[in-house]
Amino acid sequence: xSDAAMIVAGAxxxxxxxxxxxxxxxxxxxxxxxxxxxxxxxxxxxAPFLLLSFVGAPITQTLYGMILMFIMLGKVGKxxxxxxxxxxxxxxxxxxxxxxxxxxxxxxGAAACDAQAETNQxxxxxxxxxxxxxxxxxxxxxxxxxxxxxxx
Length: 152
Fold this sequence. Notes:
Layout: H1 3-42, H2 51-56, H3 60-73, H4 84-119, H5 123-149
Helix pairs in contact: 1-3, 1-4, 3-4, 3-5, 4-5
C-alpha cells in the first residue's frame, strides 16, 4: 500500500470511528430523552426541551474527526516516503479515542436526561459532567494534531 493510500485510509478511519461514536452516543441519549419525555407526559408534567442539549452533545466528536481528516488529507503527496504508516496509526487511534468519548458521553447524557426530567434540577452539573467526557475527545484531537505536525 502506498503512503498516499495509507494517509487516506487513516483519514477515513479517523472520521469513521469518530462518527460511529457520535452515532452511538446520540442514539443512547436520544432513546433516554424519548423515555423521559414519555414519563413526563404520562405524569402530566411539561417535557423539558433542555434534554436535547444532552442528546446533541456527542455530535461534536464527529467534527473533531473531520478536522483531523482534513489535516491528514492535506499531507497526501506532501510528506516524505514512509510517512503513511504513522498517519494511518494516528488516524485509527485518534478516531477510536474520539469515538469512545462520544459513546460514553451519550451514556452519561442518557442518565442526565432521566435525572433532569425526573427532578427538573441539576442541569448545569449534568452539562459539566458531559463536558469532562468531551475533554477526552478534545485532548485526543489536539495531541493527534501535534503528532501529525511532526510528520514531514
